[in-house]
Design a protein that fits this description.
This protein has helices at 5-13, 30-38, 64-76; strands spanning 25-26, 43-47, 57-58, 81-85, 91-96, 99-113, 117-127. The two termini are 19 Å apart. Strand 5 (91-96) and strand 6 form a beta hairpin. The chain has a 4-stranded antiparallel β-sheet with strand order 1-4-2-3, with helices on one face. It folds into 2 domains: 2-85, Dna Ligase, domain 1 (2-Layer Sandwich), CATH 3.30.1490; 91-127, no CATH class. It is α+β, with helices and mostly antiparallel strands.
Length: 134
């Protein structure tokens, strides 16, 4: 859904989104697939229905062989994947068996907008438990 957010915002509000999206290539689109295959070693490629950092390729951290093998997956089922540029993500200390250790954390609050903006209790959060994962 993420890659469609600019269109969703415009459809429901009649206005362009205020905040920009991370560039996202839908591999189901031939031009996007071509770009992704040509730049596979520079991109993060994720399964459309994946989560938790599984089933993905982090191009800059992958070997040439891993990139070649992943390219075969992309060509076999391009609609299963999207690609994005790598980002410098912040970390948060978490308690592991070895003590405090930095991990990537996502925090997503719920915000309601009507005649005013309201941040409501709760939200979504996720921590990458595996060291080095996103």
């Amino acid at each position: 859904i993420y890659s469609y957010m600019p269109e969703i915002v415009e459809f429901y509000t009649g206005r362009k989104a205020i905040l920009g999206n991370i560039p996202t290539w839908r591999c189901s689109e031939p031009d996007s697939l071509k770009y992704v295959l040509e730049h596979i070693s520079e991109l993060v490629i994720k399964e459309v229905h994946g989560s938790g950092g599984y089933g993905m390729l982090v191009g800059p951290a992958a070997t040439k062989k891993e990139c070649q093998e992943f390219a075969k997956k992309l060509q076999a089922k391009p609609s299963n994947y999207i690609a994005q540029p790598t980002l410098a993500l912040s970390t948060c200390p978490i308690l592991t068996e070895k003590g405090l250790s930095p991990r990537h954390v996502d925090l997503r609050p719920y915000v309601l907008v009507s005649d005013r903006i309201q941040i409501v209790p709760g939200g979504l959060t996720r921590v990458a438990l595996k060291e080095g994962s996103l």
